[in-house]
From TrEMBL, chain A:
Main location: membrane
InterPro entries: MetI-like, MetI-like_sf
Similarity comment text for this entry: Belongs to the binding-protein-dependent transport system permease family.
One of the protein's GO biological processes: transmembrane transport
Protein name: Carbohydrate ABC transporter membrane protein 2 (CUT1 family)
UniProt xrefs under CDD domains: TM_PBP2
Signal sequence bounds: none
Annotated membrane topology: Multi-pass membrane protein
Organism annotation: Pseudogracilibacillus auburnensis
Localisation: Cell membrane
TrEMBL record, chain B:
Name listed for the protein in its UniProt record: sn-glycerol 3-phosphate transport system substrate-binding protein
Region (Disordered): 421-445
Biased composition (Basic and acidic residues): 424-445
UniProt-listed SUPFAM superfamilies: Periplasmic binding protein-like II
Length: 266, 445
């Protein structure tokens, strides 16, 4: 039985890693399928060079970084306060409002493109990074998972802090936030990967290079309906877009996994 | 320790966000200033130009070059080219802008989006601008007639052809030699096609090592219209009539089914568009139907000699055209419309059209482009490129109707359900015809 489990685990791991390996191999081999090989082969940086010169990737990296961190930072503030309110405070219509928040999870983001666009136009935020970020400043899913975590934190901790004369914000900052660290980490993973990969919304509301994210650079190479796929450059562009995320994951791997274990045990 | 670290991280993020916001403020300031300058220097015009890239490469560089070259010749007009994804993304962005009363000045969109844009009252007919331009008639009549077919509606011209293509037959000359076929004589008729594909298919026991022919069917039924045209049909007319339930359509479907099931020289089911050229380059398919846009890709990557030929004929030769045209939008000032018209003429001038064709693999849209030196040289070194141009003599329009997306989807799903064997050709097309009629009814008043 244990061998079977190990086998299945390895099997799934291999299935998951194949596309990644394939992308890396394609990225560093010449754009000629017949000379493609798993090991050996001709290694080249030509594809990376073509892609890097094809679009202002340095600017795009910076933009994506600003957008992703900006959204995450504001989300942390909004979801912490909202989650605390839903978990611990009593106010009129609390359950109904919470229900409305949950319903929002089910609305696909693409449906909101047009109304959001009109609002941003009225605020004259079209073609700005702030415009890309604003609709995502609150997150229903974040509020939901954080509320569940806050609810599981013993109320006695808050009471004793109160006895010591702690203000409400300090209670949240010193009692709830540290204890919910694994949840914050898990949520950052969801948020960062979503906004890192978001394409259509930024494409529609921005027009200038100064405000557009990495995915727009990727699209130049990935969208090739008139010629059919050109794997080498598509792979190189994909590699460049996902590389920072993959690298970050490898570096923080231990923290991520232990954070999920913590939240699991609780 | 932890606290102070966290503090710094938070501070950093705050700074980043602030700098992100302040940058946008700057850009706003700049635009305000430049509009001040406009009124002083009178008539400085800025045009926003949306364009898609569909060929998977840094084409944006070429577009930006065309724009800056234009400004050099016309210093009072500045073009801001904006890359907008593929055709679908470009259309979504444009439509959103139009709903927000904030349209771009000009854009390259699919030629077949004409009726959708007309129904939104989003575009202006080029005739408005041609009236004031003495050379306009000469200019328009220089375009290859097949490319203009999707530009015309209500006796007006609504768009100017830019990045256009047509499907051709690519064939592997070495495979031809190997099975004793003359590599200089590609199949000319459907019977030839069946015959040749049987010879070219290579099997190893039950495994097919090389298909005789591969006709992609995963995207919209673009190539499919070619088969209908070859059988003497027209498929659609005037944007409000479609003829799905006709003999020509049935013959076209039957050919697909015969190749896959009776002769077994083509893979069964729906064949993917994007990987078809790769299969050809890898030698897994001896003949493929694909767009001329792929010429450069195949030339660069195939390590065998290949030929390009007309799509084989049934009753006659036939092929659809495809690709994107320039549109000018409603709701912008007269000066901007004039400026946009000038830019379109510049971007489609004979030399530009020739160079654009060489760089991208699209077909040059104007007869005079083929008179230029660069084009003559190019065709001499690469005669395959001329085949597509010559085939245009037999080419027709691409399917284009009101509510085009919906009607195309109806045909596509009927077509694919026949390929996968879910439905018989006759009943599938009868149903598709009824559905399409329902969609188009309101436009037939």
């Amino acid at each position: 039985m244990r061998y079977l489990e190990t086998f299945v685990a390895y099997f799934l791991a291999i299935v998951w890693v194949i596309p990644l390996v394939w992308i890396v191999l394609n990225t560093f081999q010449p754009n000629n399928i017949s000379s493609f090989s798993l090991i050996g082969g001709n290694w080249t940086l030509e594809n990376i060079k073509t892609v890097w010169e094809g679009a202002p990737f340095a600017q795009y990296y910076l933009n994506t970084f600003i957008i992703v961190t900006g959204i995450l930072f504001v989300q942390f503030i909004t979801i912490t306060l909202a989650a605390y309110a839903f978990a611990r405070l009593n106010f009129f219509g609390k359950n109904i409002i919470f229900l409305i928040f949950l319903i929002q999870i089910m609305i696909p983001a693409d449906v909101l493109i047009s109304p959001n666009y009109l609002i941003l136009r009225d605020l004259s935020l079209l073609d700005t990074k702030l415009g890309i970020m604003i609709p995502h400043f609150a997150s229903a899913i974040g509020i939901f998972i954080l509320r569940q975590t806050f609810k599981s934190i013993p109320y006695e901790l808050e009471e004793s802090a109160k006895m010591d004369g702690c203000s409400l914000l300090r209670i949240i900052w010193h009692v709830y936030v540290p204890l919910a660290k694994p949840t914050f980490l898990a949520f950052s993973l969801i948020s960062v990967s979503y906004h890192w990969n978001n394409f259509l919304w930024p494409l529609i509301i921005t027009s200038s290079v100064e405000n557009r994210p990495l995915t727009v650079g990727l699209a130049i190479f990935a969208m090739s309906a008139d010629t059919g796929a050109q794997w080498a450059t598509v792979s190189a562009a994909t590699f460049m877009v996902i590389f920072p995320l993959v690298l970050a994951f490898f570096i923080f791997q231990k923290q991520f996994i232990s954070s999920f274990m913590h939240s699991g045990i609780r | 320790m932890f606290k102070s670290k966290l503090f710094y991280i938070v501070m950093m993020i705050v700074l980043i966000v602030i700098s992100g916001c302040s940058k946008t403020d700057e850009s706003k300031d700049v635009s305000v200033k430049s509009s001040d300058n406009d009124s002083e220097k009178q008539e400085e015009i800025e045009l926003t130009f949306y364009y898609p890239v569909q060929v998977g490469g840094p084409i944006n560089k070429i577009i930006e070059e065309i724009a800056s070259d234009f400004t050099e010749e016309n210093p009072h007009i500045k073009i801001n080219p904006v890359y907008t994804g593929d055709y679908d993304n470009t259309m979504i962005k444009t439509q959103t802008d139009i709903q927000g009363n904030n349209p771009p000045d000009l854009a390259v969109l699919l030629a077949i989006d004409l009726y959708t844009l007309m129904d939104m009252n989003a575009i202006i007919p080029m005739d408005d601008l041609m009236e004031n331009d003495n050379d306009a008639d000469e200019y328009v009549s220089d375009f290859i007639p097949a490319f203009l077919e999707n530009s015309k509606a209500d006796d007006k011209i609504w768009s100017i052809p830019f990045q256009r293509s047509t499907p051709v037959l690519y064939y592997n000359k070495e495979a031809f030699k190997e099975v004793g076929l003359d590599p200089e004589n590609p199949p000319e008729t459907w019977n030839d096609l069946i015959d040749y594909s049987e010879k070219l298919t290579v099997r190893n026991k039950d495994q097919v090592e090389r298909w005789g022919v591969q006709i992609p069917s995963s995207t919209n039924p673009w190539i499919f219209k070619g088969f209908v045209l070859q059988s003497g049909g027209i498929l659609d007319e005037n944007g409000k009539d479609v003829y799905f339930h006709e003999e020509s359509v049935e013959e076209a479907l039957q050919l697909h089914l015969d190749l896959a099931h009776k002769h077994e020289t083509m893979a069964k089911g729906v064949i993917d568009w994007a990987t078809t050229p790769t299969d050809f380059i890898e030698g897994k398919a001896a003949m493929i139907y694909h767009t001329t846009g792929n010429l450069t890709n195949i030339k660069d990557n195939a390590d065998f000699d290949f030929g390009v030929a007309y799509l084989p004929a049934n009753k006659n030769y036939g092929a659809p055209t495809g690709g994107g045209n320039f549109y000018i939008f409603e709701g912008i000032s007269e000066e901007k419309k004039e400026a946009a018209w000038e830019f379109i003429k510049f971007a489609t001038s004979a030399e530009r059209a020739a160079q654009w064709s060489i760089d991208t693999g699209y077909i040059a849209t104007r007869e005079s482009a083929y008179e230029t030196e660069v084009m003559k040289e190019y065709l001499e070194s690469f005669p395959q490129a001329e085949v597509a141009k010559n085939q245009l003599e037999y080419a027709g329009s691409e399917m284009s109707t009101h509510n085009n997306g919906e009607v195309t989807e109806i045909l596509k799903s009927a077509f694919q359900s026949v390929l996968t064997g879910e439905q018989q050709p006759k009943e599938a097309m009868e149903k598709a015809q009824q559905e399409a009629d329902k969609v188009l009814e309101p436009f037939r008043k």
